[in-house]
């Protein structure tokens, strides 16, 4: 009987983990398309990103309901409970990353509808956006394999996105000072840059929850050097 219950619980964990990876794949695609809509100033792709948000939200609600059902039926303890708690947090971070992708798409639409100048340095967001998309992919991979080493890499690389964001802000300020007519469009791009940075932050959060599941250590708001010591 115990073996039977254990195998059922394992099946529940496998199923809900698969749903999280499904959500992650959807958000990762949403992020890539949002970046493409910015790079190409594509209204069509921006609309696709916005339409996908409803699917992301529905999937998050379904995963939350499934988690509640598992906890109520199985009453997990120790690492199994940590995993379910982490899955809940990861799901929330993925949904919020999807929100940021949708925000990028809406900013692209606003820029196009206002007929704002396209000579602003939007292409220079490509490095940061590629970094954020790559971090999200790595975070999902780290979760799928519960890989602490990959999680540590993500924590280190998140600083690169922050540096790109700060550099981009300085360039936008220069553009606005040189030509006040670009202020409105520059502010739109600033919101886009911030959304990209936030996607990187959500990937970092997911990496921290992977460490929590494997090591049982809550490393949020902890210096990287201390995290490296904690996972050894």
Structural write-up:
The protein has 232 residues and is an all-alpha fold. It has one domain (1-231): Up-down Bundle (Methane Monooxygenase Hydroxylase, Chain G, domain 1), CATH 1.20.58.220. It has helices at residues 2-40, 43-74, 78-114, 126-145, 148-178, 183-215, 224-230. Helix 1 runs antiparallel to helix 2 (43-74) and helix 5 (148-178) runs antiparallel to helix 6.
The largest sheet, given as strand count, sense and whether it forms a barrel, is: none
* Helical proportion, percent range: over 70%
Give me the Rg, rounded.
Answer: 20 Å
Q: What name goes with the CATH superfamily?
A: Phosphate transport system protein phou homolog 2, domain 2
Structural class: mainly alpha
**Overall geometry:** globular
Count of separate DSSP helical elements: 7
The helix/strand series, from N terminus to C terminus, equals HHHHHHH
Q: Give me the CATH architecture, please.
A: Up-down Bundle
Distance between the termini: 37 Å
| Tally of distinct domains | 1
Mean pLDDT: 86
Work out the number of β strands: 0
Instruction: Tell me the strand percentage band.
Output: under 5%
Catalogue the unreliable spans: none
CATH topology: Methane Monooxygenase Hydroxylase, Chain G, domain 1
Q: Under the CATH scheme, which class?
A: Mainly Alpha
Protein name: Phosphate-specific transport system accessory protein PhoU
Keywords: Cytoplasm, Phosphate transport, Transport
Function: Plays a role in the regulation of phosphate uptake.
Subcellular location: Cytoplasm
């Amino acid at each position: 009987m115990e073996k039977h219950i254990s195998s059922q619980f394992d099946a529940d964990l496998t199923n809900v983990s698969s749903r999280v990876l499904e959500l992650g794949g959807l958000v990762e695609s949403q992020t890539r398309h949002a970046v493409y809509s910015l790079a190409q100033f594509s209204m069509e792709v921006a609309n696709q990103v916005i339409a996908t948000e409803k699917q992301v939200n529905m999937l998050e609600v379904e995963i939350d309901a499934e988690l509640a059902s598992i906890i109520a039926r199985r009453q997990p303890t120790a690492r199994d409970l940590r995993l379910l708690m982490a899955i809940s947090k990861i799901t929330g971070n993925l949904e919020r990353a999807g929100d940021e992708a949708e925000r990028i798409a809406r900013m692209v639409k606003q820029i196009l509808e206002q007929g704002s100048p396209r000579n602003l340095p939007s292409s220079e967001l490509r490095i940061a956006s590629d970094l954020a998309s790559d971090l999200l992919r790595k975070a999902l991979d780290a979760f799928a394999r519960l890989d602490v080493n990959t999680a540590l890499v993500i924590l280190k690389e998140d600083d690169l996105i922050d540096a790109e964001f700060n550099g981009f802000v300085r360039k936008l300020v220069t553009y606005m000072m040189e030509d006040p007519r670009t202020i409105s469009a520059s502010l739109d791009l600033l919101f886009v840059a911030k959304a990209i940075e936030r996607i990187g932050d959500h990937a970092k959060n997911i990496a921290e929850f992977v460490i929590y599941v494997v090591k049982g250590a809550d490393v949020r708001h902890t210096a990287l050097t201390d995290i490296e010591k904690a996972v050894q």
